[in-house]
Each structure stands twice: as structure tokens, then as C-alpha cells.
Design a protein that fits this description.
With 403 residues, the protein is of the alpha/beta class. Helix content is 36%, strand content 19%. The protein is elongated and about 80 Å long.
């Protein structure tokens, strides 16, 4: 019996050792696995270097997080900065708007200009419409840091910056009260609960102060933590939606283009006489419109006397949008059903001897091609008239072909 018990004990020990060895071998790759690499952009705009120093502190905080690499880049300038190559930030490369989706997180830094971001940063972000319509920044963590000369408007500036990031669907990382108990409170500090900032005009100490840089470092680390979560989940499959949502109609290509161009078609003007707003003949649609806007004519009168050429161009745009509103009705409510534009004829209320009709009509032609793309290319005529209905400065006759 003792012999049998001895065998049982030995067998049990062997099984236990085998299980332990298996667990250790399985855990070994995880123990040796290095943190996945993350690339986080620190994008800034500066003139005197204060925001650049804040950007370096943000980058230092990012790189304290395992596996995170900070990439410093500048926003391209609208107007060249004198002696930029001699500045401390002169060797930092400029970013391209198309590269923003390539990062696991983005920190945006700018000087405060009248409670808002700088003009250079605004112009740069205004070029991101294509990225926005393609949803390329959705879910990517972002944060904002700024530098204010007097400190005035810094919180408003960060909050106004947030609205652009929110429209892109980015995850916004604020600072809260992190690190505030660790900084010198005997001097003015520019930090906010929304993001690190520097009071550049305060002269008690050099700026950014140690406290402002400390908060910026913590902000960079917090962004890296959020970016790690994004990195681990960005390839996840989207959640299943219920049948009602999945069957919702998709936005047409032309509607998406109108949205990207920040254009809204007006309500199709109703006829003011015994006629129809459009006529179908086979697959062709015939439309005539003037510059009606909410029941009134935009910029009425003769071009060159009562109406400037710039006002006439605005009236021409309104007239073309009216044409498209009627065309949408003719196409069954979907402009994707339009095969091509065939002909535009522009009539302008002008004095005898006026010769710039084509310049005015370019406003309609260019807008039509912007909206319909290659299908918007058309033949064209422009005509001067001694008067037009309702004293409108422009009337457009259009022919389109439907699918």
C-alpha cells in the first residue's frame, strides 16, 4: 500500500510540474514582448518660440510612455517669417494636411489670437474637409496646448479649438487638475483645466515657466495613454446596428459633395405664372431660374449701375443653386440620377456696350463643375438683356440629361 501511495504522490508531482512548465512557457513570450510602437504628432505654430518650447515638453511627456514616439512638426505659414531659419524651431519640418490620419494621437499647439487659434493653424485645419468627409480622424485622441501673451482668452481659445476636433470625431484629452499641486503658485501660471498654456507676457520668470512646462509634460503623457487605447482598438470591427439603422438611406455622392463645399440647396422656387418649374422631354430636363432667394430677388437691378459685378456674381451663384434645386426635383430627389449637364445660357441685365457677361457667367459654370464634377461640364452662351423678370440682374436657362 505504501508503494502504491508513493507512486501516486510521484505521479501527482510530475503532473503539477508539467502544468507549471506549460504555464511558464506560455507566459514567456508575453514577458519578453516589447510595447507596440506608437507615433504621436505634436503639431504647433509659433512666431517667437514659446509654443515650440511647450511642444517640446508635450513631446517629452509622450515619450515617457512605453513604446510612444513623438513627431514634432510645424503648421505651414501663410506669410513667411523673417529669419525663420535662425530661430530655435527653424529646423522643424512643416506638416501636410494629408498625413494627420497616419498618427495614433495628435497634440495641437498655437498662440492665442483674440480668443482663438492662430490664422496659420486655422488655415491649415480648413484644408481638412476631405479628411473629415472620409471619417479619417474619428476616434483618434487629441489635445490642445497654447501660449497667450497676456493670458487673456486662453481658455476660450482652447474651447474654440475643441469644436474643430469634435466635428472630426476626435477624442479630446483635457488636463483637468493634473500636476497643479506640484507647481509654484507664487507666480502667475497660465495652465487651464482644458490644456496647458503659457502666460508669455508675464516677466516674473522666463516663459514658459517650469510649472507650465511640467503640466505640458503630464498632458503629453496623458495623450499617449489615450493613444495606446486607440491603438489597441482601432482595428476592431464596428458594433452591429439594428436593422432599422442599417437600412437607413446612404447620402448620395452629390449631397456629400455639397456638404463638403458647405453648400445647401434652397427650396425650389415655385412658379409665379402659368408654367412648370421644369419640363422633361425624354431624358432631358429644361429649367429657367432667376436670382430668387426666400421669395425676394438677390441684388436686383442693372449690372454696372445699380449692381456691382461682385454682387452680380453672387446673384449668379444663387440662380445656379435655384436651378439645381429644381433639377433635384426633376431627378426624383437624387442628383446622382443626373447623367450630365448639357447647356447653360446666362442672361444678364446690362447696359448697351457691356462686354463682361462671360466673366459673370463663369461663377455659375465653375460652381456647377465643383458640384457635379466632370458631369457638370457643359456648352454655354451668355447674353446681355435690357431688362429681366422681377428686375433680376441674372437669369439662367439650363438643359440637363438624366440617367
Amino acid at each position: 500500500m505504501n508503494f502504491i501511495n508513493s507512486i501516486r504522490v510521484k505521479t501527482g508531482l510530475l503532473v503539477l510540474l508539467s502544468l507549471l512548465s506549460s504555464a511558464i512557457l506560455k507566459a514567456q513570450p508575453k514577458m519578453n514582448q516589447k510595447p507596440s510602437a506608437m507615433k504621436i504628432l505634436v503639431l504647433f505654430n509659433t512666431e517667437s518660440g514659446g509654443t515650440y518650447k511647450m511642444a517640446k515638453a508635450i513631446a517629452a511627456g509622450i515619450e515617457k510612455f512605453p513604446g510612444a514616439t513623438a513627431v514634432l512638426k510645424q503648421v505651414p505659414r501663410i506669410k513667411a517669417l523673417a529669419n525663420e531659419d535662425k530661430q530655435i524651431f527653424g529646423n522643424i519640418p512643416y506638416a501636410n494636411i494629408s498625413e494627420l490620419p497616419d498618427y495614433d494621437g495628435i497634440a495641437f499647439g498655437s498662440a492665442v489670437h483674440f480668443g482663438n487659434m492662430s490664422a496659420d493653424m486655422r488655415y491649415f485645419l480648413d484644408q481638412s474637409v476631405g479628411i473629415w468627409t472620409a471619417h479619417k480622424l474619428e476616434g483618434i485622441p487629441s489635445t490642445v496646448f497654447m501660449s497667450a501673451g497676456s493670458g487673456a482668452g486662453r481658455e476660450a481659445a482652447i474651447l474654440s479649438f475643441w469644436s474643430t476636433l469634435a466635428v472630426h470625431g476626435m477624442v479630446i484629452v483635457p488636463t483637468g487638475i493634473m500636476g497643479t499641486s506640484e507647481i509654484d503658485k507664487t507666480i502667475p501660471q497660465g495652465n487651464t483645466v482644458f490644456g496647458a498654456s503659457s502666460v508669455a507676457g508675464a516677466t516674473a520668470v522666463s516663459r514658459p515657466s517650469e510649472g507650465e512646462l511640467h503640466i505640458a509634460t503630464l498632458q503629453g503623457y496623458a495623450l499617449a495613454k489615450a493613444a495606446k487605447g486607440y491603438q489597441l482598438t482601432k482595428d476592431s470591427r464596428p458594433i452591429a446596428t439594428d436593422k432599422a439603422i442599417s437600412l437607413a438611406p446612404k447620402m448620395s455622392k452629390i449631397e456629400a459633395r455639397l456638404k463638403a463645399l458647405n453648400l445647401t440647396l434652397p427650396d425650389a422656387p415655385a412658379p409665379v405664372g402659368n408654367y412648370k418649374p421644369f419640363r422633361l422631354s425624354g431624358k432631358q430636363v429644361f429649367i429657367n431660374q432667376i436670382a430668387l432667394n426666400a421669395g425676394k430677388v438677390d441684388h436686383p437691378g442693372m449690372v454696372g449701375t445699380e449692381v456691382t459685378e461682385e454682387q452680380a456674381k453672387l446673384a449668379t451663384r444663387q440662380t445656379l443653386l435655384n436651378v439645381l434645386a429644381v433639377l433635384k426635383q426633376a431627378a426624383g430627389g437624387d442628383l446622382d440620377n443626373v447623367k450630365q449637364a448639357v447647356q447653360l445660357t446666362g442672361f444678364f441685365y446690362t447696359a448697351a456696350g457691356y462686354t463682361k457677361h462671360a466673366v459673370l457667367m463663369n461663377e455659375a459654370s465653375n460652381l456647377l463643375v465643383e458640384i457635379l464634377g466632370e458631369n457638370g461640364m457643359h456648352t454655354r452662351a451668355t447674353v446681355g438683356a435690357s431688362s429681366l423678370p422681377m428686375n433680376s440682374s441674372v437669369e439662367i436657362q439650363a438643359i440637363f440629361e438624366l440617367e
